[in-house]
Amino acid sequence: MFLSNLIGDSIKKSLSYLPSSYRKRAIWLLLGILINSLFDLVGIAAVLPLIAAILKEGFIQSNAILCWIYIKGDFTSDNSFIAFLSAVIFLTIVFKNLFGLWIQKTQYQFTFDAFRVVSNQVLRSAYNKGFAFFKNNNSNDILNEVSYIPQSF
Asked: Among candidates 23, 19, 26, 43, which has minimal Cα distance to 100?
């Protein structure tokens, strides 16, 4: 229970630092990451029937889904069906990997954009404190607040 509250509170607090347009992007990005995870699961699970069809004689006819595809596809031999199944799985994995690359690119772009926004907010806040603030504080501490803390966020 404590862990779920900690995670939920951390997410709420993190989202509160971002403008509303970034919150929407974050939700879409999380949804994309979830879909990518499901594609990974499907990609791994899709290989198992192919391996079984290659290794076990009569597996295509004994499996209801594969048998239905075999009949509807009007395949004449197990080898042609295995070739078809291999091509479909290959294309699925290629699509899954391309989608994963796009999600990663989007994630990195979102992270950089969020860093830039938060860093600019902290910098504006520091500038609004006036010259006395800069004179009375160590420049390394100010740099840490403006650059390093938002970057680790």
From this structure: 43
Spell out the alpha helix ranges (H) of 1-153: 2-16, 20-55, 59-62, 64-72, 78-128, 131-136, 139-143, 149-152
- Interior CA angle at 12 toward 8 and 15, to 5°? 140
Contact 100, 41 (CB under 8 A): no
DSSP letter assigned to residue 137: S
60, 88, 113 from 22: Cα distances, Å: 48, 37, 9
Per-residue pLDDT of the chain (153 residues; tens, 9 = 90+): 445 577 677 777 777 777 778 888 888 888 999 999 998 898 888 888 889 889 988 898 898 988 999 899 998 888 999 999 999 999 989 999 999 999 999 999 988 888 788 778 777 877 787 777 777 777 777 767 766 666 665
142 Cβ contact partners less than 8 Å away, ≥ 6 residues apart = 126, 134
pTM: 0.70
| Helix axis angle, 78-128 to 20-55, nearest 10° | 160
User: Residues with Cβ < 8 Å from 106, sequence gap 6 or more?
Assistant: 29, 32
